[in-house]
Amino acid sequence: MLAHLRESVHRAATIVRRLREMTMRGEVKRDSVSLGDCVREATALALTGSTVTVSYDVPAKMVVLADRIQLQQVLVNLVRNAIEAIGDRSDGRIDIAAKEEKGVVRLRVHDNGPGIPADVLPTIFDSFVSTKAQGMGVGLAISRTIIESHGGELTARSSPGEGATFDIVLPTA
Ligand SMILES: Nc1ncnc2c1ncn2[C@@H]1O[C@H](COP(=O)(O)OP(=O)(O)OP(=O)(O)O)[C@@H](O)[C@H]1O
Ligand SMILES: [Mg+2]
Hints:
One of its GO terms (molecular function) is protein histidine kinase activity. By secondary structure, the protein is of the alpha+beta class. Helix content is 37%, strand content 25%.
């Protein structure tokens, strides 16, 4: 009983904290952030306890104007989702690549998991949409809010057998 109670309290606290994060519209503190460093730090955090292989193709001098903590939160969400999608298959891979295109930086996070079912894809950025038993379905909603508050865009695509691909577009610093 106590164990159940503790689990429920923890879950409720997490829901409240994440809802606050989602609705919080504080001042966005923007600094010149090294995208490569940000990606590596967030990935290291998200990968804890996972054996998935990650490849990076992010030019060392690429800089974006962003709130470093919020950008890391987005990356942690995307990488955690990829790890959760890959599950326990042993050849799991996540490829993270960035390139600069006229005035914007495009950061792509691709995984070789099962991909996103076509009937789920249109709603994954909505709050409380989840296909996971323990999922709250707020990770992507929060992530999109954060990227849009930076004047950017977060989109997803997936075709059968190709895994899932998330694209973050941000204005260059
Ligand atoms: N890389 C991915 N591969 C396949 N499906 C994905 C991927 N990322 C997200 N999804 C789908 O999108 C849904 C919503 O993701 P989101 O991160 O918002 O919520 P969640 O992971 O289910 O829960 P949480 O609130 O804990 O993040 C997931 O439940 C899953 O169905
Ligand atoms: Mg998630």
